[in-house]
Amino acid sequence: MGKVRLDAAIRRLPAHISVHVSYRPFMIDSRTAAGGESYLEYNKRRWGSDAWTRSLRAAGAQEGAPFAHWTTWPNTFHASRTLLHAARHGRDAEFKHECFRMCYEEGENLSLRETVAAAAERAAVPGGAAYAMSDEGAEETIEVLHGVCSDTGERVRSVPFYSIQKGAYSFSGAQDTKRWLAILEHFAEVSGEE
User: Fold this and answer.
1) How many whole angstroms separate alpha carbon 175 and alpha carbon 43?
2) Which of 1, 131, 171, 188 has a CB 3.0–4.6 Å from the CB of 17, allowing a cystine?
3) 102-153 pLDDT, tens per residue?
4) Using H for helix, E for strand and C for coil, what is the string for the chain?
5) Taking the CB of residue 161, how many other CB atoms lie within 10 A of it?
6) What is the per-residue pLDDT across 147-191, written as a single tens digit (0 to 9) for each?
């Protein structure tokens, strides 16, 4: 929901305000089985049920991301590894979008290299499909995932986590679109884009 709402706010900004969004890897649960786990079984094991997703799904249904086919709790190691590669080519936002769409809306298992390769291909990441199928960047990804920090060095413990203007303003949580608009317009004004 965080990405959906941020994207909606960016679309509603006046044309003279530019926003650059970059994505960094984060693994919610590194103990997730390498091949992913059944969505329901994982939620039952970790939280007793999937009740926490009801409000998420309800909000998503109203905002264009209904989580219609979320069938797997993925192990996102290969997606994280390929995200780093995509970022080097300026395609991280497109890659992230495809990963979310494939996992939550199309029922694909994002734990699998083949799924990650397909997401990289859809996002037009140069060499992304081959990268996803390889082991390239594994050590770098492990290092990044063990020390995910904000631009100011604050340890990131949950997602979504946002850092605006290199840490001038950092916060976590899926803000609503109206709040995003206020935040983005404020920073545009401060930086002289208005």
Assistant:
1) 24
2) 188
3) 999 999 999 999 999 999 999 999 999 999 999 999 999 999 999 887 777 7
4) CHHHHHHHHHHHCCCCCCCCCCCCCCCCCCCCCCCCEEHHHHHHHHHCCCCCHHHHHHHHHHHCCCCCCCCEECCCHHHHHHHHHHHHCCCHHHHHHHHHHHHHHCCCCCCCHHHHHHHHHHCCCCCHHHHHHCCCCHHHHHHHHHCCECCCCCECCCCCEEEECCCCEEEECCCCHHHHHHHHHHHHHHCCCC
5) 19
6) 887 777 778 888 899 988 877 888 888 899 999 999 999 988 887
Residue 75 and residue 27: Cα distance in Å, rounded?
A: 8
Pair of tokens at residue 191: 């930086």
Question: Which tokens go with 131?
Answer: 């990268």
Render pLDDT for 46-71 as a digit per residue (tens, 0 to 9).
Answer: 999 999 999 999 999 999 999 999 99
Sequence-separated (6 or more) residues with CB below 8 Å from residue 45: none
Amino acid at 13: L
| Residues shown for the chain | 194
User: Residue holding tokens 């797997």?
Assistant: 72
Tokens 């049920």 correspond to 49
